[in-house]
Design goal:
heterodimer; A: alpha/beta; Rossmann fold; seven-stranded mixed beta sheet; 7 strands; about 35% helix; B: about 375 residues; alpha/beta; eight-stranded mixed beta sheet; 10 helices; globular
Chain lengths: ~200, ~375
Amino acid sequence: MRYDLTQIESWIPEGSRVLDLGCGDGAFLSRLQETRRVQGMGLELDPENLIAATQRGVDIVQQDMDQGLSNFPKSSFEIVVLAHALQVLHRPDKVLQDMVRIGREAIVTFPNFGHWRCRLHLGLTGRMPVSKDLPYHWYDTPNIHFCTVKDFEALCADLNIEIIDRDIVSGPTTALFKQWLPNLFGSTAIFRIKACD
Amino acid sequence: MVHAGDVGLVTAAREVFSETLTLTSGRTLAGFELITETYGRLNTQRSNAVLICHALSGNHHAAGRYDLSDPKPGWWDLHIGPGKAIDTNRFFVVSLNNLGGCDGSSGPNTMNSDTELPWGPDFPQVSVSDWVTTQVMLADRLGIDSWAAVIGGSLGGMQALHWAVHYPERVRNCVALAAAPKLTAQNIAFNEIARQAILSDPDWLSGHYQRETVTPTRGLSLARMVGHLTYMSADGMSDRFGRDTRTPSDTIDSEETVFQVESYLRYQGKQFSTRFDANTYLLMTKALDRFDIAADFNDSLNDAMAVTTSRMLIIAFSSDWRFSPARSQELVDALLASGRPVSYAEIETDAGHDAFLLDEPYYTGLFTAWMQQVVI
């Protein structure tokens, strides 16, 4: 399982209600239903994913996050998850605000654009990074809103969102450095957030 | 021949209820009859029964054929059968003709035992609630304490919703396709045009046409043309008919159709007028107009959905303008507001409202996958 998902799983309370935004084929929610006995619900747009998630016994609603999430009431879930989808949203700020309204807590993961490889690529070649993890060109990428760990933390401060916990994933060789310079050595950022009291 | 995936040959059954039925209107029926069909086998725990609720012009014949030479199988044969969404290898499927229908259940075209004449327009108006009441009586008779699923499209979906709201302990899964919590003014307006078409037919005879052995076929046909039009989408019609014309004759004929779409609609109307009863059409459209799932909950759809306990599947179709996806989303939002589990999909299609009767890969795939998760 992807490391960010393992970390999210450890933050999910037993038996909680979990909303997974952009839940894909429902594999993660299905796993949480088994390991954490959660009452899960997924949000998706892709028909094949809706069928796949349903085959796994996951309740799933076809809805476009970019059109808003106002139909989900305040505090209707314990945890709202957005895993590796922040960068594809038209207005990540609005979705984040909805997430901390709908969930008592929210968990967000995203690729850190402040990672040294990205910086090196842009710095040396003067071109937008294309890599194994981010295989798209600037013009055809669904990832329209890249940000760095620092950018994300600044946005949370602006939106009055409290960061409860943070984990930065890195490659094995740079694991030691990420503790001091997470924005430079972390490739994936995982944030646990909630609305400020 | 019988294909794999077909339920094969089926027969209808008659259930006679002798108890007095008090309708929501306050009127009573001293007994009534329902025509039913079943597919698959009821398991020993009686836990695998699925109820199919039909729409405006549907009936009990949902799947299979009465005779191998029947040109068409039942109206939902695409989705009922071995290995299909409503899998008869797993489920015992019950389908009926609703009270007030015209395919054998007690209704305007059956005999009133008091007068020994056809009921005609004197048959009492029934409601979605009355239909569900009679379906509950049918379930009791069949020994079905709780349905594995209650399923319906359009007006049938409204019956499924009524079940889930008023008999939550007897519905474990509920499927409402192309449905709505209630009708809009536009919906009611279309139904009123259809009714006026029937009422203005000279053969209508205040609804007593059966006594005079005539039928208001022109009115009924026109009513169906209006209805049928609203079940299709503009894009679907353009694709299918465009402005295609028929070969014109060289005489002046006011009855002659120029465009294929005219001929198609006339054909649909004519076919319908030979198989459907005009009084039933009025009764069904009025039941549809008056349906409002939130009416018993101070008009709060949230409160209505909050009392449901079943797993819910809501499906809408993108080009359905009769019961648009926005209407299905109202149901979904009310379920979300109550913290109820729900699955929802909007199927991209140009088949309009009638899409729930058809086979579209996304729709069929999702419906099948969801039904496979029904615990029996």
